[in-house]
Amino acid sequence: QHFKFLEKLMEEYPIYTEHLKKIKGCGPAMSGVIISEFDIYKSKYPSSLMMYAGLDVVIDENGEGHGRSKKKEHLRDIEYIDKNGEIKIKKGITYNPFLKTKLMGVLASCLLKAKDNKYSKAYNGYKHRIENHVKHKDKTKGHRHAMAMRFMIQLFLIDLYFAWKKIEGLEVKAPYAE
């Protein structure tokens, strides 16, 4: 029953009516997750959305880039106040794991199933490119699939950033690649 009312509720948000609603594969439920989890006012760059969702790349000691994860080397020192009121430091993730799961586990597959959109085309193009690149020959089929999915969702987030900033009348910064 709640899902029946969700689309009606989403109509109150301009980012839904002017952008998300037009994307085949991104329905009212996923739009609700996106609207509730991201704060476009805090996102200075398109990469800010990627970092918050854990879809950025971490450079290791060898200069190689890897997708962010919960691996020990990807954790950061985070200050917190313990039960005695003392400031302590612990290792922790720097992204929203709920959002990453929804974007990579739900939205990505929905965008792929909606085969006629620009995101599934970007996925296919990127996957073809890495399957034929010497550097990625030893990676498993699943690894290359995950790389292409992350690329596709990053493209989605860049488009979301530009549309949302424009709708809200906020300053738009160019993506890092530019």
In short:
The chain contains seven helices and four strands. It has helices spanning 2-10, 14-18, 28-37, 46-52, 97-113, 118-131, 141-168; strands spanning 57-59, 65-67, 76-81, 87-92. Helix 5 (97-113) crosses helix 7 (141-168) and helix 6 (118-131) packs antiparallel against helix 7 (141-168).
Q: Report the average pLDDT across residues.
A: 91
Radius of gyration: 18 Å
Strand order of the largest sheet: 1-2
Oligomer: single chain
- How many extended strands? 4
- Provide the structure class: mainly alpha
- Percentage beta strand: 5-15%
Which segments are poorly predicted (pLDDT under 50) over 5 or more consecutive residues? Answer: none
**Relative helix content:** 40-55%
Biggest sheet architecture = 2 strands, antiparallel
Order of helices and strands: HHHHEEEEHHH
Notes on the protein architecture:
The strands form 2 sheets. A two-stranded antiparallel sheet has the order 1-2. The chain has a two-stranded antiparallel ribbon with strand order 3-4. The chain has 178 residues and is mainly alpha-helical. A hairpin with a 5-residue loop joins strand 3 and strand 4 (87-92). It is built from 7 helices and 4 strands; from the N terminus they run ααααββββααα. The mean pLDDT is 91. The longest helix is centred in the last third of the chain and has 28 residues, at 141-168. It has helices at residues 2-10, 14-18, 28-37, 46-52, 97-113, 118-131, 141-168, and strands at residues 57-59, 65-67, 76-81, 87-92.
